[in-house]
Amino acid sequence: MEEKWEDVLEQYDLKVRRILWARGAKLLETDQGLFQLRQFTGKPRQLALENALTSGLENNGYHLLDSILNTKEGMPYALAAKKYGKIGKVRQAEEDKAQEAQPPGQDGIVSAEPEWWQLPFPEGKDVYVIRRWFAGEEGNFRNAEFLKRAAAALGNLHNAMENLAIPEELIVFHPSMSLTADWQKHNRELKRIRRYILNKKQKNEFEILFLSMEEEYMEAAGSAYCLFEQENCRELFAEAAKRRLFCHGNYNYHNLLDTQEGIAAVCFEEAGVGTPVFDLYQMMRKLLEKNRWDKELAVDVLKEYEKQRTLTDEEHKLLYILLLYPEKFWKVSNHYYNSRKSWINRIDIAKLEELARQQKKRKETLQFFRSYRG
After folding, report:
1. Which of 186, 188, 272, 338 can bridge 172 by disulfide, Cβ–Cβ 3.0-4.6 Å?
2. Are 63 and 94 in a shared domain?
């Protein structure tokens, strides 16, 4: 394993002084600052988009992000053979030699080579990416002051994401662009879970609790879907596609680092074209769940975001509708249904009990946000 890390690091113009483990990756203390080395398991096109997006943000003056470091060859990733030892190295050398010996195209004309991101990563190789990193603590979504600063940082990030010159061929749409299709799927799954539980003769603690809550949450799910259609929320998604607006795609406390320079947004692997409201929704849902749907805190956080980027009335409506959909209830229920049924998962029960305790406050806060416009 150490030999693999050495092979990867040799491909970069870095002098590594110290290597630490953090978040399932290597932290590199180097002559050029702090970096993170981590294996990449996604598709080439997504990596190319991430590289273009973070580079564009830096050009727009937004530097608190984990931009990708290129290798000595100018590539945004490094390759390392999966198999080591003498046999593995000999096999790799034979493959490299065979690739070099490939004949040119028909009539001796070499056809134009596709870009690296248009091809799959080479078989038999692991892909590694080095990103700029920051010394700081992971975000605390129970800390009001941090949440306000995180909201302001998100507003600034969305402003910097506008008018990015991303090549059309790299465009990837965030999964939230098919939101209502996902909701329909989730609703079918909840109905399937309900039928499964009702057909059981003996019901466990989780199942009894689920049945006591399911009707109210399914009503909220149906209301969210109907309001999405009635308020023409699809227009916001169509506008995002037309204007090529981007969202981070996973803006939560795991991907925010509280540093001396400010709040750094990291992990842009899920970024894509999408409405910025989805990032705000992800943040607001998490902070509301962790703070028992504290209305006053939510308003304060939202105001900090709007100091940087003002929401339209349509975006306010969409934010309310997204929060109305019972995403957490579906997640907990779906995890139960797809787990072993021979024993009761106490964590699932605890999460469902917490949802039940928060339900009254959740309804009150959502009712407030239904008409809230800042």
Report:
1. 272
2. yes
Token pair recorded at residue 327: 């995403």
- Same domain for 202 and 304, yes or no, is yes
Angle between helices 327-337 and 205-230 (to 10 degrees): 140
The tokens describing 295, both together, are: 């209305």
pTM of the entire predicted model: 0.89
Tell me, what amino acid is at 333? S
Q: 196 and 56, same structural domain?
A: no
Strands (E) located in 32-167:
33-40, 78-81, 125-132, 137-138
Q: Band the pLDDT of 91: cuts 50, 70, 90.
A: very low
Mean pLDDT across the chain, nearest whole number? 91
One-letter identity of residue 17: R
Range of the domain at 327: 139-371
Query: Higher-confidence residue: 339 or 87?
Result: 339
Structure token pair of residue 352: 């469902």
Q: Tell me the C-alpha distance between 16 and 279, whole Å.
A: 35
Instruction: Work out how many domains the chain is built from and give that number.
Output: 2
Structure tokens at 69: 């470091």
Same domain, 185 and 109: no
